[in-house]
Amino acid sequence: MTIGKSTRMNIYSKKQVWKIALLLFAVIIGILSLWYTNDLVKELKQEEERKVKIWAEATSLLTKSEGDISFIFSVIQNNKTIPVILVDENEHIISFNNLDSAKINSKKRDDYLTDLLEDMKHEQRFISFPLSNGKENTIYYQDSVLLTRLNYYPYIQLGVLALFIFISYLAFSSSRKAEQNQVWVGMAKETAHQLGTPLSSLIAWLEYLKLKGTDEKMVDEIRKDLNRLEIITERFSKIGAVPDLKTTNVKAVFENFTVYLEGRISKNVRINVLGDDAEAAINVPLFEWVIENICKNAVDAMGGKGSLVIDINDNHPYVYVDITDTGKGIPSNKFKTVFQPGYTSKKRGWGLGLSLAKRIIENYHNGKIFVKSSELDKGTTFRIVLSK
Known about the structure:
The structure is a single chain. The protein is of the alpha+beta class. Among the domains are: about 25-145, no CATH class; about 245-385, 2-Layer Sandwich (Heat Shock Protein 90). It has 9 helices and 11 strands. The protein has helices spanning about 5-65, 70-75, 100-105, 110-125, 145-210, 215-240, 250-260, 285-300, 355-365, and strands spanning about 85, 95, 125-130, 135-140, 245-250, 270-275, 280, 305-315, 320-325, 370-375, 380-385. A 5-stranded mixed β-sheet has the order 6-8-9-11-10. Strands 2-1-4-3 form a 4-stranded antiparallel β-sheet, with helices on both faces. Helix 1 packs antiparallel against helix 2 (about 70-75) and helix 7 crosses helix 8 (about 285-300). The chain is rod-shaped, with a radius of gyration of 38 Å. Residues about 1-10 have low confidence and may be disordered.
């Protein structure tokens, strides 16, 4: 059974579209929230400016009035929110209202008032009004505490929303990964179980062929493939279990594997293993599975003709393995997508090879695997980072 290439590609295309759509939706919500709040703040600011003007006018009338001034006095006293400082024409502070009581009652009161007055002057928030004696007083003011809080509200709101989305994403992502792990382990264990019985039968049939005097060369080739099946069964049985990591010569593992691979690929593909005799903590059967998936993909990408270079570098405390082919390359926007389950550029196949390779390297070897570089129609380099 195979999954059509167009179907697989469509899944990831739709996933990308949904991500972009959700991001745009979040941006629109943020913009609308900021716009609405800023519009509300603007209206409140205008309202506070009108209140200050009324206070200034009331103060001016208070100095000129000779009758009942109780109403005017009540207008002045009812300002309970807007921080204001009243100064004379020489900028000497006459009175103030709605300032920080703790600072007003502290020893540094004068410094606080001077600094605050300078801030108000810098903001150019003031109203001047004439007095009956021909002189002029000025009221300096700032936004009320409520208005200041409202200014920050949309940013706090967006921050809380972003934090909620982030935590939700981590929770769903963790849950999804746990489910994927269960699927991987279950599939691997079942595959190992299903392979066990026919493999035992084939080994018995091989012994029968030997007794029948079948051509020895043919028997040896069948034995090699049966040994390979045993290794594959062992690989699947190890998925989900804690692998036994041993310090091993990485270059030797590649050299042994390439001997097997060269007999099963086109003679037009040249394989070179270069670099250091570096040692790293690996599980050989699982690590061979990784390099088999990468190398076979590379051979397919080259169309059975080209060069495959494996370069091993000992860079304590890590070992770097670069696998470079001369194939058709990978678009830069697919560098991460190629490791997702089900993604493949082939007409046939499940698209699980690189996903499995990533899982083995990162989950079981505490390493890293990624596309180091790639150019279309020139080739690709995969890098594996292993701990010593």
